[in-house]
Amino acid sequence: MRPMEHPGKYLYCVVRCSEERTFEDVAPIGEAGGPIQTVVNDDLAAVVSDSPVVEYESTRTNMMAHERVQEKVMREFTLLPVRFGTVSNPASSTQGIRKLLENRSDEFHRLLADMEEKVEVGLKAFWRDEKAIFDEVVTENRGIQKLRNALDGKPLQAIHFDGIRLGEMVKEALDRKRAAEAASILVPLRRIAYRTMETPVLVDRMILNAAFLVDKSCEEDFDQAVAKLDEEFGHRTVFKYIGPVPPYNFVNITVNWDET
């Protein structure tokens, strides 16, 4: 999309702040340049930077720029992440943002109170050896063993439908094993987390893809719980633990400028 001559404002997040601020040592999204600063209305502020009115592609560069600004702001403020790619109308850019903050003040204050002193952490768990897990599934399931043995040595054209059924049985057994192991991982973490969100697994090796909203006072307990899981399951499971990050999975402010 071709940029318009007059810039709009790119929105990163909403914070509780009653003064104009700038954030140094972090680059804005895109190539418009200029400062990353607040647009204030009463005690709420949007963190913004100048931007042409374009539809930002979800490239790694753009996504990382968006997230780096939020992570910079997070060092000082509880924040509400704004959906990636949100750009204000250039005809009334600052005025429109102030109107947004005014019209949705109750909602933003409620969400900020809910996010106060909390951070998001993420945990992904993967089977270390996918072939070993497959062998376990076959060993544990007599039906799979029986069908696999019955098909062994037969020409492919003769076992087409039975082969499909065998694949379905293996997938169902893997899904059951994945669900059982994910539940075992989640039990101790749910006890500590304020809120938990499971997101879809992305590859066959993945057991769990989850985000947790954790009170800052419980961060150390949560870290220790993840370390204990690694000790207990590390021989078969690889854990990828990230955070703290802004609460992307628990708050995602979307804006319809026609309604502001």
Question: Would you kindly provide a brief summary of this structure?
Answer:
This protein has 260 residues and is an alpha+beta fold. The protein is 41% helix and 23% strand.
What does this structure look like?
Helices cover 41% and strands 23% of the residues. It is an alpha+beta fold and 260 residues long. Strand 7 and strand 8 form a beta hairpin. The longest helix is centred in the last third of the chain and has 33 residues, at 160-192. The radius of gyration is 24 Å and the shape is elongated. The relative contact order is 0.16.
Kindly report how far apart the N and C termini lie. 24 Å
**What is the fold named in CATH at topology level of the largest domain?**
Alpha-Beta Plaits
Largest sheet: 5 strands, antiparallel
As a whole number of angstroms, the C-alpha radius of gyration is 24 Å
Instruction: Provide the CATH top-level class of the largest domain.
Output: Alpha Beta
- Count of domain modules: 2
Rough outline: elongated
Category by helix and strand content: alpha+beta
Strand arrangement, major sheet: 2-3-4-1-5
Q: How large a portion of the residues is in β-strands, by DSSP E?
A: 15-25%
- The helix fraction, in percent, is 40-55%
Number of discrete helical segments:
7
The mean pLDDT is 88
The H-and-E topology, N to C, reads as EEEEHEHHEHHHEEHE
CATH architecture of the largest domain: 2-Layer Sandwich
Low-confidence stretches: none
Give the number of DSSP strands.
9
List keywords for this structure.
2 domains; about 25% strand; alpha+beta; about 40% helix; four-stranded antiparallel β-sheet; five-stranded antiparallel β-sheet; about 260 residues; Alpha-Beta Plaits
